[in-house]
Amino acid sequence: MTTASVQTYPTFWDETALDNTTGGEVYTESGGSNSSSLFGLLWTSLFTACIIVANFLTLAAFCMNKKLRTYNNYFIINLSILDLLSGFRLIISVLHTHIGYYPLNQDLCKIMNGISRSVLSASNFVVVIICADRHRATYDPINHFMTRSKRKALFLNSLAWLVAFAFWMMFITAWEFIDNFDNGRHCVNKYSTIPGVSLVNVVIIFYLPFFLISFLYLRIFLKIRKTRGGKLVEKKFDVKNNLSIVGTNFPKDATTSSQNNSTIGMDHESVGVNQFGQDVARRRTKKAGSNADKKPNRESAAEMRKATRTLLFIVLSFVVAWLPQSIIGLIYSVKPLLIVQGLPRAWMLFFTWLATGNSLLNPISYAVSQPLLRSTVKYMLFNHCKDKSPPKKVNS
After folding, report:
1. Selected residue with higher pLDDT from 213 and 295
2. What whole-number distance in Å separates Cα of residue 252 and Cα of residue 18?
């Protein structure tokens, strides 16, 4: 397919293809365009640097503080690695937008397009895996807790990489090499030149993960809400039962009776009551000691709250970042001219970079939801030279 036919339908999905019809606006000899290009270079470079630095600090905190390397946080580590790679891939996009053409040759273009889409897809798949894991922890807490391990976390994280790379390297890179597709000077994906086929990209990248995440998180939310309601009712019944037991076994004149018995001797009834109280105390002490020796068979309440809170922020970041671009990508797949002629280039660029902003929102979400991670990052930035010991565990 020729470059001219590609320019008929420039895809919204790939930022590297947006300049096909507006390349002159990116880099020309006119002073105004150069000024605009320098401004674009400045903010896109700053944005890319923020993504790289934020995710690098997150990974450094996990490496530094062993207490952060919990089962749930292994998924966060995987997301941070993928988001860091997304930041590095944006360096090529920044150069492309500034100079007005793709800086690498077509063979590298085909490979990088496949890798880029694989990294984005794997990141979204990891969010689905986190939701699925949290769903099982909510509905089957004992078996989930007993079977979770570092090996299981690594397997699930590797699965996201394997599925994403296997699909996109075949769908993009292998297809373009077999067809000997001409990517042009802007490194256009072959699927983006075919509106109907580009629907596959929109569905796999966003809509399939979105519906799975929405379904799983809704069930998690309903289960947590139901459980909290049940605990409140159970707590009320426990209070009533305890009051009734106290009222039955220890009458109002128990204090007077005990005082009298201390001076004139204890009768058989008071002896029985005292013996009953001593037996209860011994049983409770014994039970408490045996429970202290046993390992927990499920997550603690604090750990569950922290994991659910982190997941909430990750899901919100995913939806806010990807939803606008995915809606426009869906419209393009059905009727390209509605997007090509109706949406200004500045808005197309904004929504494209908003989607990449998910890689910046994720590390912010981790810091907001996990106090220990936040304190570790602060320690690395400000207190490392003063104190050689990492921060201790912080209550969530």
Report:
1. 213
2. 84
The answer to whether 345 and 35 are in contact (CB under 8 A) is no
Retrieve residue 11's tokens: 């895809």
pLDDT number for residue 298: 78
What is the model's pLDDT at position 137?
93
Q: ∠334-172-94 over CA atoms, to 5°?
A: 85
Pick the closest to residue 18 from 193, 238, 190, 186 (CA basis).
Answer: 186
pLDDT digits (tens, 9 = 90+) for 295-318: 577 788 888 888 888 999 999 999
pLDDT above 70 (res 1): no
Is residue 17 within 8 A of residue 113, CB to CB? The reply is no
- Reduce the secondary structure of the chain to three states and give it as a string: CCHHHHHHCCCCCCHHHHHHCCHHHHCCCCHHHHHHHHHHHHHHHHHHHHHHHHHHHHHHHHHHCHHHCCHHHHHHHHHHHHHHHHHHHHHHHHHHHHHCCCCCCHHHHHHHHHHHHHHHHHHHHHHHHHHHHHHHHHHCHHHHHHHCCHHHHHHHHHHHHHHHHHHHHHHHHHHHHHHCCCCCCCCCCCHHHCHHHHHHHHHHHHHHHHHHHHHHHHHHHHHHHHHHHHHHHHHHHHHHHHHHHHHHHCCCCHHHHHHHHHHHCCCHHHHHHHHHHHHHHHHHHHHHHHHHHCCCCCCCHHHHHHHHHHHHHHHHHHHHHHHHHHHHHHHHHHCHHHHHCCCCHHHHHHHHHHHHCHHHHHHHHHHHHCHHHHHHHHHHHHHCCCCCCCCCCCCC
Residue 329 is encoded by which pair of tokens? 């990508």
Tens digit of pLDDT for each residue in 172-208? 999 999 999 999 998 988 988 887 788 888 899 999 9
pLDDT in the model for residue 3: 39
Integer Cα distance of 190 and 198 in angstroms:
9
Give every CB contact of residue 21 below 8 A, 6+ residues apart in sequence: 7, 10, 340
